[in-house]
Amino acid sequence: MIQIENIQVGYGHCVVAEFAGDIAFAKARLIALIGTNGSGKSTFLRAVASGEHIINGKVSINNQKWQNIAPRDRSKLISIVLTERAFSQFLTVRELLELSRAPYTNYIGKLAAMDHEIIDEVLEKFDLHKLHDRKAGTLSDGQLQRVLIARAIVQDTDYILMDEPTSHLDINHKADLLLQLKEYCHEHDKTILFATHEIQLALSLCDEVVSIHKGSIAHHTTAKFHDSKLLQQIFPSKNLSFKNGTIGFDF
């Protein structure tokens, strides 16, 4: 279980973001992270993923403070998909996925048969098998987004954090992807926390919701989030209406 308690993120004594509240993530959940632009969703994900730049508060996993866990062990517990795409454009799709098995390889980095089986399974599940030998630089934005998500899943961590995973995808692929991720979480006892602006889609498919609003974080089941009226507080607008998790437009 990941536990987060009143964290402040910054450099030295300079606080750049703070998230007041105590929340915990259990396994086998697909969780949406929502908030307005600039609310700190990406900062929150980075802090939880690495434990770095936390100057107050605590992030722990399995009752261990995150900073006290060795980097190699961290990489077996949590993975992250960011909006930045820092990797060689000349690597093939399969080579990108192979890099994610590094925490489990021996000292010379040799992949075992099980590593290849995991990669093949994920390529098939996310319909990437036909792209396995394509160079990353030749992929469309949507294809590359799916590959980066697959790379995190190949890392086989209990918790996966994603920043806008449905960006660059059209509406049917957004829904398909979130359904695949939900199925993956439930089948493999994993938890995915993802930041999103696709609020209505997320509320239709996710098990739980974490919201960031005016420096406070809250964690609800999706049903209880609907009842909480937080959507109206986070996104106040005379042009929007909220009812039973549905967003309407009043103009």
Care to count the β-strands?
12
Treating each run of at least 4 consecutive H or I residues as one helix, how many helices? 9
Task: Briefly note the CATH topology name of the largest domain.
Answer: Rossmann fold
Low-confidence stretches: none
Structural write-up:
By secondary structure, the chain is α/β, with parallel strands linked by helices. It has 2 domains: 2-77 and 158-249, P-loop containing nucleotide triphosphate hydrolases (Rossmann fold, 3-Layer(aba) Sandwich), CATH 3.40.50.300; 87-156, no CATH class. Helices cover 34% and strands 29% of the residues. The protein has 9 helices and 12 strands. It has helices at 41-50, 71-74, 93-99, 113-125, 141-154, 171-188, 199-205, 222-228, 230-234; strands at residues 2-11, 14-25, 29-34, 54-61, 64-65, 78-81, 159-163, 191-195, 208-213, 216-221, 240-243, 246-249. The strands form 3 sheets. The chain has a 6-stranded mixed beta sheet with strand order 6-7-8-3-9-10, sandwiched between helices. A 4-stranded antiparallel beta sheet has the order 2-1-4-5, covered by helices on one side. A hairpin with a 2-residue loop joins strand 1 and strand 2 (14-25). Its main location: membrane. Keywords: ATP-binding, Cell membrane, Hydrolase, Ion transport, Iron, Iron transport, Membrane, Nucleotide-binding, Transport. It is a peripheral membrane protein.
